[in-house]
Each structure stands twice: as C-alpha cells, then as structure tokens.
Amino acid sequence: MELRQLEYFVAVTEEASFTRAAARLHVAQPGVSAQIRQLERELGQPLLDRSGRTVRLTEVGAAVLPYARAALAAVQGARLTVDELTGLLRGRVTIGTIDWSRALDLPGILAGFHRDHPNVEITVTQDDSASLAASLRAGAIDLAFLSLGGAEPEGLDTQVVVEHPLHAAVGLDHELAGRPAVALASLGGRDLISLPRGTGLRTVLDEACAAAGVRPRIAFEAGDPTVLAQLAALGLGVAILPESAAEPYADRLHTMPVVRPKLYGRIALAWRAEGPRNPAARALITRARDWLRNAPPAPVP
Question: How confident is the model over 238-250, as pLDDT tens digits?
Fold first, then answer.
C-alpha cells in the first residue's frame, strides 16, 4: 500500500469522479484508475462503486476512508514539523480581505514574505467581514483583514490596522447640508445609504441605532463606500461612510461627523485565537503584525 494510492483514493472520493480527481492531482486519469485498482487488489475488496453516473464509496470504502485521510494528514504533519524545525517553510496560506485598500498594504506585506519564503503558495480571497470571520473560525482561511463592529469577533484575535470616525454625507441642497455635525437620533426616519449587512461599518451603525432606540431606514446599500458617496451626491439620501470616501466628491457633498454617540469604523488583522496549525501561516501572521507595527498604514481611501 502506497501513500500515492491513498491520495488518489481520497481525491476520487471527494470529487466523486475519476476525471475531476485526475485534474486536481495533475495526473492522467488512467494512472488514477490503475493505482486505485491496485489498492483494491491489495485490500481484497472494492472501495468504489463505479456503476452510477458518479463514483460512490462502497461500504468497505466508507470504512477505509477515515484511515486514508488520517495517514495522509500524519505524513503532512511530519513534513511540516521537519520544515519548521529546519527553518524551511513550504505549503500554502490563504488570506481573506475586505478590499485592496491602501490602508492594508497587503501587496507590500506579501511581496516581502514571498522574497523570504518563495516555496509558500499564497492565495488571496475577498469577502465581507462576517463571512471572513466565519471562514477563519472554520479554518478555511489562515488570516484576514476585516472590518470590526463594536464587539471583538468570537474565537479570533485581532490587531487594529486603522480606526476612523464615521461621517454622514449629503448633497449640497440637502436640509442637513451646512451642519457641523449630526446626532445619530437625527438620522431616524431619513433615507440612509449604507454598506450591506455583514460589513463592519454596517454593524457599527446597526448596533449604535439599536442602543439609541433609533430605527434606521436603509434606502440604498452598496459594497463600495465610494458608491455610497456618489448616491448621496445625487440627492438619494444620507450616506454613512468614512470621511475619506467622500473626499473625491467634495464639490458635490457636505460631510459631517456622526455624534452622540461618535461612531468609529475599524479595520483589523484577524486570526484564530488558538493559532493556525500551518507553520507558514504562523510566519505570515508574525510578518504582517510586525509590518503593521513598524509601518503605520496610510489613511483609508
């Protein structure tokens, strides 16, 4: 019995197809079929039912699968341990981010890490903050830049990258235009323009409104703060956003801080509280934290 046979068996099981498994493993399909037939001959029982449109496990195959996965995991763990002890990093890390903002300088962090550890494969994925936090807890990603609400996310450790006050932006002919600030209570009953649920800034707004007894009326949602500014400039409502997102439209917008209470948005680096099992991920978290401490980020664009 060879590890390659177990790897092929697990891949076919997960893909429910010899063709997809071969593509995933970057080998020819006949080679996958031959190795699994050899494994079945050694065990004396069929592991896969090939009679249907999709490949399914036999009863014996279902019993063998956990042992195959455990054997592959043990070998991978041994390799990672040796790599860590010898100072050689390899493997894969996945980073989640809400955007490619200047405040994150994610390209700069990744460039330096890649120069020092060229054998580590890095994947970057984008999503909203709630989804990124869930993916971190599930172990689907190793670290993430996300926007925080009022409470710290459960099961995660964080390091704040940037904190900025939230502003209200309105068109120049809006009745609120000209005010130096606007109280949160004054926004009740008005058409608001906001980021969607699942984002940190929307969580801050919703939590503050709930605490103040204000019922927000969200007229428009958009995932990009600059789009919120554009909608407000068209007179469609009051946009809640970082002041910097409204700056390109200063000739068409009046911006003012939201007060009583003041609202703040925060972008943070986050990772699982118990730490990732992957040495490469641990090294990247350390690199990112050091980078952020020693190189203050630019303002949020």
Answer: 999 988 888 899 9
